[in-house]
């Protein structure tokens, strides 16, 4: 369940120190799906990594330039290629000379209502980081942690010196992540969540929402939430024999703004695809689903 949306919660364009090595600048792109906006992180002191540079917005780029304050930028890292995360990488790279590294390029048009930003078709990294590969600067090392699910190319970045993890949209501080097929994959998402649960990170820095200082508890809760949704789907099909996604959404998301029901249907579809892959449900034709 998302935290109530209030774009005034945090000021945009202000450099905020969160730890000796981690600093944040909030982009001016608040919405019901980005919360207060995209949080761009600056890692380091003498030289810097910039994580999720955000939208290609002139005011945000000016704020980042002021925050960098002439220091050397070692790398510009992107967790994934939705347009609220990666487009500013191009302008920032041109201004600083730093390479764009991180996730692989991915452009995909899906056929359903979106509850997040569309893909950045112009993203061209200088280097794609594989799982476990690193970028380092003076006093810091960032390690790529592959976390597909929200998107197939999603990476988190682990800051070894502070046992911190930059989680992009995989784990957010205000809402569960959107899983929208065909690229969003519930099976991959749950496996990635289990991977994070097995780690020993002390704090998460998400792209949207507050830092998370008890991350394993939140991950367990989010996995439990997905299992509850799965249980609702199975009970619906067991009770009704078969059913279509709009009927499931109407029952499962009572009290939710009907304008969000299309996006909720994408999540239900992701669950059904996962359940089908596990041999639990199957399609029954004409948009209907049933138990196997």
Descriptors for this entry?
single chain, 292 residues, Arc Repressor Mutant, subunit A, 5-stranded mixed sheet, 6 helices, 28% helix, disordered N terminus, LACTB2_WH, MBL fold metallo-hydrolase, Metallo-B-lactamas, WH-like_DNA-bd_sf
Topology readout:
Blueprint: E1 16-17, E2 22-26, E3 39-43, E4 47-51, H1 58-68, E5 72-78, H2 88-96, E6 100-102, E7 127-128, E8 134-137, E9 140-146, E10 155-159, E11 164-168, H3 186-197, E12 203-206, H4 215-240, E13 242-244, H5 245-252, H6 261-277, E14 281-285, E15 288-291
Parallel strand pairs: 4-5, 5-6, 6-7, 11-12
Antiparallel strand pairs: 1-2, 2-3, 3-4, 8-9, 9-10, 10-11, 13-15, 14-15
Plain-language structure description:
Strand 1 and strand 2 (22-26) form a beta hairpin. With 292 residues, this protein is α/β, with parallel strands linked by helices. The strands form 3 sheets. It has a 7-stranded mixed β-sheet with strand order 1-2-3-4-5-6-7, with helices on one face. Strands 8-9-10-11-12 form a 5-stranded mixed β-sheet, with no helix packed on it. A 3-stranded antiparallel β-sheet has the order 13-15-14. The chain has 6 helices and 15 strands. It has 2 domains: 16-213, Ribonuclease Z/Hydroxyacylglutathione hydrolase-like (Metallo-beta-lactamase, Chain A, 4-Layer Sandwich); 222-291, Orthogonal Bundle (Arc Repressor Mutant, subunit A).
